[in-house]
Amino acid sequence: MCRHLAYVGAPAHLGALLVEPAHSLLRQSWAPRHQRHGTVNADGFGVGWYADGDPVPARYRRAGPIWGDQSFADLARVVRSGAVLAAVRDATVAGADGEAAAAPFAADRWLFSHNGAVSGWPGSLAPLAAGLPPTDLLSLEARCDSALVWALVQARLRRGEPLSQALADTVVEVAEAAPGARLNLLLTDGTTIAATAWGDTLWYLAVPGRGTVAASEPYDDDPRWREVPDHTLLHASRTDVLLTPLKEPPA
């Protein structure tokens, strides 16, 4: 469920990343090619980006489908950034959270997205939620599994863990508490990308002199796209990509 994308590299128009490619995130909202769970991503979308000289990202999020938002089409035409994280949300049962449940989630200099689902939600994560400070729980943007997973990642980041370690440790912890959970996560600080492949597809495209994209699926047919194996952590800058196997929790 859901489709998402992160980019770091030379400044590019949002439209060049999210709208113009033949199989862009916009098209993936109704016609994904590799989505294993769900069929249409129409329950909200969002994009976050970084401006030169400002480490805190801006966000644009809506509760409706990306294809019907003319304001986003105009914004994508003119906004340029060297670091972007965007997502379209799978159609789900009705809820009260609306826009607040649409990725990317944000705090400080970080942007985060979750493609997947936590099995046994919410009971399966109750023990992990109990370990968070009450203020973190009261500050959740939405009452969904993605928001709580983000709170768990944030707690690690604020303890000083690097992006990749914070994602990897959270995925293993959540997978142990909720066997069968799908936990494809994206995280960026505007300079690097950390991502996990855990239960759904993840691909990356590294173009010398331009930058690196990590995405649920390729947005075009460039032969340089590479699929990330399941249960793998990706760490990427605009020039380098490192893949590391993730340890599976005990059965």
Low-pLDDT runs: none
**How many beta-strand elements?**
13
What is the makeup of the main sheet?
A: 7 strands, antiparallel
Helix residue percentage: 10-25%
Radius of gyration: 17 Å
Total individual domains:
1
Overall pLDDT? 94
Q: Which percent band covers the strand fraction?
A: 25-35%
Sheet with the most strands: spatial strand order: 3-2-4-1-10-9-11
Q: Which architecture would the CATH scheme give at its second level? A: 4-Layer Sandwich
Please give a quick description of this structure.
The chain is built from 7 helices and 13 strands. The protein has 251 residues and is of the alpha+beta class. The strands form 2 sheets. It has a 7-stranded antiparallel sheet. The protein has a 6-stranded antiparallel sheet with strand order 5-6-7-8-12-13, with helices on one face.
Could you characterize the architecture of this molecule?
The protein has 251 residues and is an alpha+beta fold. 23% of the residues lie in helices and 30% in strands. The protein contains 7 helices and 13 strands. The protein has a 7-stranded antiparallel beta sheet. Strands 5-6-7-8-12-13 form a 6-stranded antiparallel beta sheet, with helices on one face. A hairpin with a 4-residue loop joins strand 7 (182-188) and strand 8 (193-197). Helix 6 (145-158) crosses helix 7. The longest helix has 15 residues, at 163-177. The radius of gyration is 17 Å and the shape is globular. The model has no long low-confidence stretch (mean pLDDT 94).
